[in-house]
TrEMBL record:
The lineage of its organism: Bacteria, Pseudomonadati, Spirochaetota, Spirochaetia, Leptospirales. It comes from the Bacteria. GO terms for molecular function: DNA-binding transcription factor activity; sequence-specific DNA binding. Keywords: DNA-binding, Transcription, Transcription regulation. InterPro entries: Homeodomain-like_sf, HTH_AraC, Tscrpt_reg_AraC-type_HTH. This is DNA-binding helix-turn-helix protein. Residues 155-243 form the HTH araC/xylS-type domain.
Length: 255
């Protein structure tokens, strides 16, 4: 059965065969679910073996091995670290005795290693706001929200520079840099890389060749793109993006 990679504007989900990664970190929070048994993750100062591991955004980690059965599958769910979805998943990880939250993990296991209606998953994840658990979601400064909107529509043939965004938000470069990192927990340049990667994946899905993709998404060449992808996800992009026989890619536009 094929592995599946689903990309929404606000989350990414991989469902399929287990694989190991190199040590890496990224802006998004990551939830790892072992469908058939425990998965093993190396964090900055510890190792964890569990059927569910939640990793906060911008945290160095590495998947080191998986279940030993032949049908080992896992779920990788990447979410905005400031979202209610991340808050719900983090609450489950920190409070494993909470049976209400445990249902979240069992539900995710149902999506392991099979194709499914993406709308059903999207509705399920979006329904977390109806949970009885109360979450404290950090508020993001309006000027940073403006920055995110500008980046979403940016023409990456021109590199997004710090000075331009500082001017658009009426802040000094130093203050803008501090406020962006304080609001999102990641430096501005690092977030720009994530945005460029998303744009590149969309272009690949549209059938464009790698040269066109790099040009449109602001990478100098294919090696630059591969290094950035490897740094973000810990695996070579060819694992997900070039072998359509083993990985099915789905990308969903903003509503």
């Amino acid at each position: 059965m094929k592995s599946n990679l689903y990309i929404w504007p606000d989350k990414v989900l991989y469902s399929g065969k287990h694989f190991e990664t190199e040590s890496h970190k990224h802006f998004l929070a990551q939830s790892i679910v072992g469908v058939h048994g425990p998965i093993h993750v190396e964090l900055e100062n510890s190792k964890v073996s569990s059927d569910f591991v939640f990793i906060p955004g911008n945290t160095t980690h590495r998947i080191i091995e998986g279940p030993k059965n032949n049908g080992d599958n896992l779920i990788l769910l990447y979410t905005d670290p400031h979202s209610k979805i991340s808050a719900a998943l983090e609450a489950e990880y920190n409070q494993p005795e909470n049976r209400t939250n445990r249902n979240i993990i069992e539900k995710l296991k149902e999506y392991g290693g099979r194709e499914f209606d993406p709308l059903s998953l999207d509705n399920f994840l979006s329904g977390f706001h109806r949970s009885k658990i109360k979450f404290e979601i950090p508020k993001i400064d309006p000027r940073i929200i403006l920055t995110l909107e500008l980046l979403k529509n940016w023409d990456f043939e021109k590199t997004p520079d710090l000075k331009t965004f500082a001017e658009k938000t009426k802040l000094s470069p130093g203050r803008f840099t501090h406020l962006f990192s304080e609001s999102l927990g990641i430096p501005f340049k690092r977030f720009v890389l994530w945005t460029k990667l998303t744009k590149a994946v969309l272009a690949l899905k549209a059938g464009k060749n790698l040269t066109e993709v790099c040009h449109e998404s602001g990478f100098s060449d294919s090696a630059h793109f591969s290094r950035t992808f490897m740094d973000m996800f810990g695996v070579n992009p060819s694992k997900f993006l070039t072998d359509s026989r083993s990985v099915q890619l789905y990308i969903f536009d903003p509503v």
